[in-house]
Write a structure and sequence with these properties.
Blueprint lengths: L1 H7 L21 E4 L3 E10 L2 E6 L2 E6 L4
Antiparallel strand pairs: 1-2, 2-3, 3-4
């Protein structure tokens, strides 16, 4: 997706923290998922769900904001 390309430009993947469902994430925060790779939080949907754009598309993931 174009939004992923825009956000990924200039992002140093080695400095991005890995995804964990136990951790909270904020909008536009980068993450590295073990299966999907580099992603960026598009939206915090609920206190326990986030929408993340990866190179292959958008996915909903579990997180802990509580």
């Amino acid at each position: 997706p174009k939004v992923w390309q825009k956000l990924a430009k200039g992002t140093d993947e080695s400095s991005v923290r890995p995804y964990s469902f136990r951790e909270p994430f904020a909008e536009e925060e980068p993450m590295v998922h073990p299966r999907f790779g580099l992603g960026f939080v598009l939206e915090v949907l609920t206190p326990t769900k986030i929408e993340v754009v990866f190179q292959d598309g958008v996915r909903r993931l579990v997180c802990n904001r509580g």
